[in-house]
Amino acid sequence: MLKQETHKKTKILAVGDIHGDTNLVKKLVKKAKKENVDLIILAGDITLAEMSTKNIVGPFVKAGKEVLLIPGNHESVATADFLAELYSPSAKNIHGYSIQKGDLGIFGAGGGDIGMHLIKDSEIYNLLKRGHERIKNSKKKIMVTHLQPKNAMIEKIGGFEGSIGVRRAIEKFQPDIAICAHLHNTGGIEEKVGKTTLISVARNAAIFEI
User: Residue 6's pLDDT is what?
Assistant: First the structure.
C-alpha cells in the first residue's frame, strides 16, 4: 500500500505595530525560538515614523528565521525595501508581491489611512490583486495588510473605519487567513469574514500553522 503524501505545514509568528520597540522584538525572538516557527510576518508599522530601523528585523534573521514584511503608515515603501534588502535573502518586502512556500502562497500590501504612507482603496486592492495573481493556484493562501477591512468586528472595536479595498480583496481572493494590524486595541482578535479567518496582530503576536 502506497503511503499517502501529507502536507507539510508552515508555522508562522505574525505581529504588527512594533514601532521600533527593541524590547518587544527580543521577547518575540525568544517566543519564535521556543515555538520553533518557520516564518515571521511583520504587518506594518515596523518603525516609529521611520526613526527606529535598527535591531527590528535583524534579530529575527540572526535567530535563523525568514521574515516577510510590509510597510504600515509609519514607514514608506522605500524604508520597507531598505529593511528587506539589508537582510536579503532572509527578508522580503511583499508589498504588492508574493512568495510561494510549497503549496502555501503569501501575498500582501501595506500602507495606512493616516500618517506617512497613505494608500487609496483602489491602490491597495490593485496591489493585492497583483500579488495574488502569482500565487492564485496555491492550495493555501495568506493575505497580509496593515489596514483592517471595512465592516469587520475589529473596525467597531478599534473605532476607526476599515478599508473597502482590503474587504474587496478578501471577498474576491478568499484567502484562508487574512492578517492585519494598525488598531492597537484589537490585537489578538480573530473573526470570520466569509470563509476567511481574519487575525488582528497589532502588537499581540499570533502563532499558527497552515
Answer: 54
- DSSP string covering 175-201, please? -SEEEE---GGGTT-EEEETTEEEEE-
Q: What are phi and psi of 174, to 5 degrees?
A: 45, 60
Over range 94-108, report the average pLDDT.
97
The answer to whether residues 182 and 162 touch, using CB atoms and an 8 Å cutoff, is: no
What is 115-175 written as a DSSP string?
A: SSSB--HHHHHHHHHHHHHTTTT-SEEEEEESSPBTT-HHHHHHTS--BHHHHHHHHHH--
3-state secondary structure of 71: coil
pLDDT at 5 over 80: no
15-40: average pLDDT: 97
Give residue for cell 473596525.
Answer: 155
Give the pTM: 0.93
CATH assignment at residue 138: 3.60.21.10
Structural domain total, the chain? 1
